[in-house]
Amino acid sequence: MTKCFADGLPAGQLDRAPFQFRHALLDHPALTIEGLAEVLPELPPERVRYSKGLADLRINFDHAHVEHRNGMGLADTIETIRGGNSYIAVSDPQTHPAFRGLYGDLCREMTALLREGGQSQAIHEPRIWLFIASPNAITPFHFDRYSNVLMQIRGSKQVAVFPNFRPDIVPVDVCEAYMDRQPIDALWRDELDQHAIKFDFRPGDALHIPYTSGHYVKNGAEDVSISLSFFFQTDETLRWTRAMQFNHRMRRWSKAVGLRQTPVGHSHWLDATKSHALPCAEAVSRVARRLRRA
Q1: Per-residue pLDDT of the chain (294 residues; tens, 9 = 90+)
Q2: Rounded to an integer, what distance in angstroms lies between the CA atom of residue 43 and that of residue 45?
Q3: For residue 52, which phi and psi values (nearest 5 degrees)?
Q4: For 121, left (φ over 0), alpha (ψ -120 to 50), or beta?
Q5: What is the 3-state secondary structure (H, E, C) of 211-224?
Q6: CA 260 to mean position of chain CA atoms
Q7: How would you classify residue 219: left for phi > 0, otherwise alpha for psi between -120 and 50, otherwise beta?
Q8: Each residue of 10-49: b (16+ CB within 10 Å) or e?
Q9: Long-range contacts from 1-8, C-beta under 8 angstroms, 24+ separation
Q10: CA-CA distance, 239 to 278, in Å (whole number)?
């Protein structure tokens, strides 16, 4: 078994605030450029997205691999990434033998930390993502549906993280729609930067990005950047997710009858009630769709 995190990770702060710590994955053979060059072509093509090196925080990150193609195949993108202008994002490499053991170690260690801190009895929907980028490339402003531990393997970057549950940064209805797997527009406005907490990031550094916290990344100029994100849900974030999905599905109905919905994160009791009521909201949505088609 591989130890993934340095001792002293403050698990009690998860999803309350971003914090930096250290990881222990610098020597993992699958996380070198050479290891990735072997593994990535063996993954299903839909899990390996690549584009030009992005340079605008307003770009929609979810669509970048379609709207900003680099004109090369995967092998050439990897081969030229040091001197070129490319960005590679890889989802769920844990299905490959090279990452299977690491994935299990991350799951076990994070579960133990959460239980120790009284945060959660389990982790849910754990995933690995890899990000390989040319010097000076950026990751545009976006937010994720999970808690995130970002670990830097090679190169440097600056990571800007924004407070979660702030409607002036991510509007409530936009956040709820995204959590319900609906497409959203890019959200960046230059005036948001005053709210950022910025972290300088080098190999061996790890950063917790809280659930739904907006963030962007600017890679350093001196080298290729390789980083690994471990995404997961806790008992709490899963409850928040389901409550947001409930709000999103009931929003049209509640507006029609003049009800104002309470945003998630204000009341533990109300969030739990909405989470448990999600199947009812799904049934109402199905009935409404059938009535609209009739």
Answers
A1: 778 998 877 878 889 999 999 999 999 999 999 999 999 999 998 999 887 666 677 777 776 665 556 667 788 888 888 887 788 899 999 999 999 999 999 999 999 988 887 778 899 999 999 999 999 988 899 999 999 999 999 999 999 999 999 999 999 999 999 999 999 888 999 999 999 999 999 999 999 999 999 999 999 988 999 999 999 999 999 999 999 999 988 876 666 556 678 889 888 889 999 998 888 767 766 766 676 676
A2: 6
A3: -65, 155
A4: alpha
A5: CCCCEEEEECCCCC
A6: 29
A7: beta
A8: ebeebbeebbebebbbeebebbeeeebeebbeebeeebbb
A9: 1/101, 1/105, 1/108, 2/28, 2/101, 2/102, 2/105, 3/105, 3/109, 4/102, 4/105, 4/106, 4/109, 5/109, 5/113, 5/149, 5/206
A10: 10
Amino acid symbol at 127 = R
Residue 188 one-letter amino acid: W
Q: Which residue has the tokens 């702060």?
A: 13
Structure tokens, 201? 């990031």
Which pair of structure tokens corresponds to residue 292? 């609209």
